[in-house]
Amino acid sequence: MSTVVEKPAPTGNGLNRKKSSSRKGKKAWRKNVDITDVEQTLDELRAEERTTGGKVHQKTDDALFTMDTAGDGKVQKELRKNRPLKMDEILAERSKIPAVSGRHKAVSTSAPINAATATHKANTKISKAEKARLLDMIKRRTSTSLFAPVNKPLGRSGTTDATKAAGRFDVWGSDGEQKQEQEQEQDSGDSDEDMIGDFVGEIVTKVTAKAPRSFKQKQKVSLPAVKEAHPGASYNPTMQDHQGLLRLAHNEELRILHQREKVDSKLAYPKELDAMISFDDQTGGLLEDSDDEEESEDEAEDSKDDTDAPKPKKKGKKSIAERNRLARAAETAKKEAEIKRHKELIKQTNRVKEIIKTVEEEEAEVEAKRLENEQKKEEKERAGMKRVGRFNIPKERIHVQLQDELADSLRQLKPEGSLMKDRFQSFVERNLIEPRVPVAKRRRYRLKTYEKHSYKRFDNPNHA
Amino acid sequence: MGKLHKKGKAGAAINYITRNQALKKLQVTLADFRRLCILKGIYPREPKNKKKANKGSTAPSTFYYAKDIQYLMHEPILGKFREYKTFAKKMAKVMSKGQYSTAKTLAENKPIYTLDHLIKERYPTFTDALRDLDDALCMIFLFATMPKTEKIKSETIENCQRLAAEFQHYILHTRSLRKTFLSIKGIYYQAEIKGQTVTWLVPYQFSQNVPTDVDFRVMLTFLEFHQTLCGFVNYRLYSDVNLVYPPTLDLKLDEGGAGMNALIIESTQSSANIAKTVSQSTTSTVAASLSKEEKQRLQESEKRIKSLSSKIAHIQETEDNTTTTTEIDQDADSAMDEFPAPLPNLDGTAAGTVTFTDIQRASQHLTHFQSLFSNCVIFLSREVPRYSLEFVLRALGAQVGWDAVLGEGSPFDENDDRITHQISDRPTQGHRFLSRQYVQPQWAYDCINAGKILVGDTYFVGKTLPPHLSPFVEAKEGDYVPDANQFEGQTEDLAIESDDEEEEDEDEEDEDEEDADEDEDEDAEHKDLHQIELEAEAKGVAFTEFEAKENKKKIKATKAAKAAEPASTAPTTRSAGKKRTAAEAEAEEAKELAKIMMTNKQQKLYTKIQYGKNKKAAEVEKLTQKKELLAKSAKASANKKAKK
Fold first, then answer.
1. What does the pLDDT read at residue A439?
2. Could you tell me which residues come within 8 angstroms of residue B606 by beta carbon, excluding any fewer than 6 positions away?
3. Of B159, B185, B384, the CB nearest to A159
4. Which of B133, B198, B269, B642 is the most exposed place for a label (fewest CB within 10 A)?
5. Ranges of Acidic residues compositional bias (chain A) (predicted)?
6. Contact (CB<8Å) A389/B85
7. Count of CB atoms within 10 A of residue B239's CB?
């Protein structure tokens, strides 16, 4: 560095001042924080490793020291004679740490021409099946083009490496714990981290994320994975059970019908409109305006008259006598009220027990209602959400076979419904996934239509 | 003055996060987010007040717990998704340049993720996993029957079929099937595994078409998780009963359409040698997909099968002193595992106190139920669904053979004289063997649900069948059960008649066999059961047959126990007209007293309840009387006919 030192040789105070530059804020901290000592130590450690092949402080005393029982001056002299040049020594220096084994190098396009032709053969020689296998890793199944946009998501096929690896050991036994420990070690097994770990390990430990309470909490929905079949869904049911199931299906169908009717009726053209139109036709739509207005005006006037009739009393100054009278009346009223209250109190004291009982009963009732409400709420929660996200959860279809569809024997049975749909429905009902509605593909832009010249010729006999 | 609270800094506003916010936070696509949520088990939640949770907006949106999403950020799979994205980009670039060798090396280093940590996280214990197995089984059995389409790869279907077959084998081995139900949708099965009730639904074969309005991306993600779960569960289940997992696939049988019989189930105890070869062959089965290697695999599996018998013989010679699980142990285990759960058709014992005798009776009942078909040798005609019937029958100890049309590997053919029942489903049966009963498929399912072997006459080929009742409907107290006595007197005591048959069979078999039998009587407790099984298998006796013999002994024991029992199991129900006993009168009095102590409101409620109960009882009474009358008239007419 060729910076000019402007200030005189730094005293102790000066050094301190230079060190204590601002570390306010992230940027300033990064700029001004002094980590030379840390880096220096790390460098020293690396140098140690290079020369000794490991960390000195980790080695045993035996590896570091030998007891020199008999020092010899002669030997020293002789050694000095054959000593190589310093230059050679420096050049011959090699790190004691073994070199990193080379990664398989990808064939670069910038390689020499000879090599390129040699590898070219290896590159082009590939079976069709192999090529398909390689492409299958990246290609989207739906795309027709060979090199269509990539990023095929994992696990589209249902069998992944995870499923293949399943069942090789006991997850719940000791093997599982061992395996997980191993994996954790592998994750944190980098050399640099190791080195730092020696110093920092005592203070900082790698924290594994703890699952939140909510994660361990079971879902409130408690519907069984496999619903019990209705007895009427037997392939050879009793008459009663079958009728029961039929009734269920019937009611469900009726409900849907009613709903549809309701919507239809709302959407339909209202008949009242028809009636109005016919009235308009009768009057010819000429008279109505003037007549109506007059009538309404008349009514308004009438009502005005009515309100005028009872006149409010005029408020004047009260006379003293009046005031006195009023005061007396108020006093007597107060006294009477007092007496009444007193009487009531006496009455109540006579039936304290009864009152206590009614209060208790009321309280019990409130408590019971609260409990009931709570229970209802819980039940509702257990039944699952009715709607998740944008869509309502569809109701399960009741599968039923009519009397004449029922099979006489197992051989003739025609299964009803699709279990795949059934499973999907179950997942949705238990709120494991949100309900979805298949989205039809839409055109990005509208298709323009043009009339071609030939179509304009309407007199053309070929034109329909 | 209290602290001022800013809006949107606490409560629902920060507890919930909308889906779009989550996408932004995690920086993933919607599709990836959906996948992550399914795999990790993060579901949409419902805030109490949507307006508060969504900054005052009432627009419809899906909410998640903010902390869930925060936790999702630490998920290693999320990192893998990103890695895969970059990998795909690199790959596409290299492929478009035609640098195939580079592409190959890239493909070798494809980022791979596993789900075992998620399984462990979501199901900390094995029991948790069993509780959630219903879903997984349904999906796996469903996809095992799906046709291969563009969306569903054949690889997936095969894997599902394997997992399904493995699970079924476990059920067979432990005899843990409890209920079955043929519905118009599919077949319901209910099993009991380690005290947990597992129900799953299997579609009828060849009936599944691929619906268009189901989101397959979601389904396949679920399937991926469920396959992984099922794989680990199967491993644990197999290792718990000392079986080798994964079982070897007999390729020849598999190609012949043997279905779940193509798997070779072996015990881990028999010998370490076998385990070794199994591991070798399995690695080969997993690794190879080329035709050359397939051939090799075929050869290997053939070799292995051939060597199996010799190995077993070897084991027989060098007597295994390690008797890790004796028969008794196993029985005790199963009994201990299973008694607390409700058993099919177990007489209703008082729920309040469980006495030791109750437990004992339950376990006896269970052992009897588990060997329901143990004395049956059943042949399946070509028109019946073997995939279900074989499983159901063998799960309760039957020996099952089938027509060659239904696939390879049948232990016996139609002309075998050991056959006690033949299941066929045709209008008329042409040629008939006198020694066996011809029944329709429903017979098997009804037997299981009834918990006893029903008379085959009502299920005779071509006859109109009695209704198939759902075993999942549990009659409440006081309900009228129309079929309570339906099967009364219809049960067959097959044990006695088949005893003779069995003896005859034994005569036909080798002398060694008989020696072995005698040995069994003495040493059964000391010898390793698995080993005996294997010996028997080597001699050509089917596993089921062997089981049947084993169970015969058990049945004899249970019969003896039963003979002592009937007094205790006698029905306690009493018809209305009879005199009251002292105890009943006392109970009535206590009720009256209790009624006096009630408040007015409670009394009214009580009378209401009683009224309902009485009404129900009257209905039941009416129906039973009607039934009795009908039965009487039927009897009378039968008598008349007989006289004529």
1. 80
2. B595, B598
3. B159
4. B642
5. 183-195, 288-305
6. no
7. 15
Residue A74 lies in a domain: no
Mutate to test the interface with A, among B106, B116, B133, B481 (most CBs of A within 10 A): B116
Q: Could you list the residue range(s) of the whole structural domain that residue A272 is in?
A: 238-288
**Domain ranges (residues) in chain B:** 12-74, 78-108, 117-268, 355-566, 599-637
- Domain B355-566 = CATH 3.90.76.10: no
Q: Do B61 and A389 touch (CB under 8 A)?
A: yes
CB contact under 8 A, B113 and A212: no
User: d(Cα B407, Cα B258) in Å, to the nearest integer?
Assistant: 5
Which chain B residues contact residue A377 at CB under 8 A? none
Token representation of residue B49: 């007040």
The answer as to whether A284 is a domain residue is: yes
Gap between the Cα atoms of A433 and B334, Å rounded: 38
Are A214 and B138 a contacting pair at CB < 8 A?
Answer: no
At position A7, the amino acid (one-letter code) is K
Contact A388 B44 (CB under 8 A): yes
Is residue A94 included in any domain, yes or no? no
- DSSP codes of every residue in A418-450: -HHHHHHHHHHHTTSS----PPPP--SSPPP--
Residue B327 near residue B282 (C-beta atoms within 8 A): no
> Chain A, 182-221: which have a CB under 8 Å from a chain B CB?
183, 208-209, 211-215, 219
CA gap B209, B189 in Å, rounded: 22
Lookup: tokens for A264: 């239809």
A329-351 per-position pLDDT tens digit: 999 999 999 999 999 999 888 88
Cα B473 to Cα B475: distance, rounded to the nearest angstrom: 6
Q: Per residue in B586-609, pLDDT tens? A: 888 888 888 888 888 888 888 899
Q: Are A258 and B502 in contact (CB under 8 A)?
A: no
What is the pLDDT, as a whole number, of residue A361? 95
Q: Which residue numbers in chain B have pLDDT < 50?
A: 271-291, 309, 312-313, 315-351, 484-485, 487-490, 493-527, 534, 538, 540-545, 558, 560-577
Residues A272, B563: Cα–Cα separation, whole Å? 83
First to last CA, chain B: 105
For residue A220, give how far its alpha carbon lies from the nearest alpha carbon of chain B (Å).
9
The answer for A 235-274 residues in CB contact with B (under 8 A) is: 235-241
Report cis status (omega within 30 of 0) of the bond before B60: no
Collapse the DSSP code of B263 into the 3-class scheme (helix H, G, I; strand E, B; otherwise coil) and give the result.
strand
CB contact under 8 A, A164 and B229: no
The CB density around residue B333, as the number of other CB atoms within 10 Å, is 14
Low-confidence ranges of chain A (pLDDT < 70): 1-20, 102-124, 139-158, 176, 180-206, 278-314, 455, 458-464
A358 in B contact zone (CB under 8 Å): no
Structure tokens at A457: 């010729």
**Closest Cα to residue B362, out of B385, B346, B378?**
B346
Residue B350: its pLDDT value, please? 44
- Please identify which residue in the block is written with the tokens 């067979």: B172
- Asked if A144 has any chain B CB less than 8 Å from its own CB, the reply is no
Nearest CB partner across the interface for B183, out of A107, A233, A239: A233
Q: Do A225 and B92 touch (CB under 8 A)?
A: no
Residue A246 domain-assigned? Answer: yes
Predicted complex ipTM: 0.70
How many distinct structural domains can be found in chain A? 1
Q: What pLDDT is stored for residue B8 in this prediction?
A: 84
What would the two tokens of residue B566 be? Answer: 């009937």
CA distances from B540 to A310, B264, B422, B505, B535 (A): 118, 15, 22, 13, 9
Does the distance separating the beta carbons of A119 and B88 come in below 8 Å?
no
Scanning every residue of chain A, which has its alpha carbon at the shortest distance from the alpha carbon of B223? Answer: A158
Residues B152, A158: C-beta atoms closer than 8 Å: yes
pTM of the model: 0.66
